[in-house]
Design brief:
This protein is about 60% helix and about 5% strand. By secondary structure, it is mainly alpha-helical. It has two domains: about 5-85, Orthogonal Bundle (DNA polymerase, domain 1); about 110-270, hpI Integrase, Chain A (Orthogonal Bundle), CATH 1.10.443. About 25% of the residues are buried.
């Protein structure tokens, strides 16, 4: 874009960032919504304050050629925020751009596979990360930013701060997890963080390092499921349902706002499937007996 357009865009872009912060958006949301506006400006090669439906349709088509529907939807929200809050006008979004409805169930690790991952991970701090993330049902970022002061030994709880939606919650601290955390702290003696960067300082372990390590140990363990670090959280929820934990307690553990989000794990459990089979077969047994009586007549 020319110098005048670039200057205009820079001014509006900074205002966009300011409005995102004033609206209390999470850091990840700010990053995604800012990227959406930069991407649209790059496509148009001008400041995107004047854009019509045809241009948005062309932009979405190009985006879908290289990205997923989830990216298109996220960009849509980011651009809408730019128009409504930064420019103070409605966004001319094309209604034809609508993601297909899908219901994809993630792959789940078995308890034995989780145990194997932990035992086959060479570096103690990374193995401890798998253990803590699974046993507390945390998201990757929630585990990374745990502080030693978040561990309440007396009440056997962990204070998870600024989870998804900037919400705090308490989760149950198993004795086994407390033992692992104690061993971990003794290995680095960091005054604040439970998972500090290996280089020292005030930072935490790098996400990329953990993600590469997880992929590598899965290959070493011959686990060919489509899993990631977040699968530890999915597996935790599924295993607890199989063990008999009620959905509302699990919802609180996971930090879900809606019980519907938690209830999807019921569809992933082997116990639920087996229980359904039992109920259906028990219901049909008398009917089958009636059928057998009939054919004997």
């Amino acid at each position: 874009m020319n110098q005048q357009e670039q200057s205009r865009f820079d001014t509006l872009y900074q205002k966009h960032l300011t409005m995102l912060k004033l609206q209390g958006k999470a850091d990840k949301t700010i990053e995604a919504y800012a990227r959406a506006v930069r991407r649209l400006a790059c496509f148009l090669d001008r400041c995107p304050e004047q854009v019509d439906n045809d241009e948005l349709e062309a932009y979405s088509t190009q985006l879908l050629d290289t990205r997923s529907w989830s990216t298109v939807k996220l960009d849509k929200h980011g651009i809408r925020f730019f128009f409504e809050h930064t420019l103070g006008q409605p966004m001319p979004w094309l209604r034809a751009v609508k993601a297909p409805k899908t219901q994809v169930l993630p792959d789940i690790l078995t308890p034995r596979e989780v145990s194997t991952l932990i035992s086959r991970t060479e570096k103690m701090s990374i193995a401890a990360f798998w253990f803590v993330t699974y046993s507390l049902g945390l998201r990757l970022g929630e585990s990374l930013h745990l502080h030693s002061s978040d561990i309440d030994r007396q009440r056997q709880l962990v204070h998870v701060r600024r989870g998804k939606g900037n919400k705090d919650r308490f989760v149950i601290l198993p004795q086994a997890t407390l033992a692992v955390l104690t061993d971990l702290w003794r290995s680095h003696h960091h005054p604040v963080l439970l998972f500090p960067a290996s280089s020292g300082g005030s930072g935490v372990m790098h996400r990329g390092t953990l993600q590469r390590a997880f992929k590598r140990v899965c290959a070493d363990c011959n686990i060919h499921k489509r899993v990631s670090i977040h699968s530890l959280r999915h597996s935790y929820a599924t295993h607890l349902i199989e063990a008999g934990l009620d959905l509302n307690t699990l919802r609180q553990q996971l930090g879900h706002a809606d019980l519907k989000t938690t209830s999807r794990y019921v569809r992933m459990t082997e116990v639920s499937h087996a229980h359904s089979n039992t109920l259906v077969n028990d219901l049909m047994t008398p009917l089958h007996q009636a059928w057998r009586w009939r054919i004997k007549q």
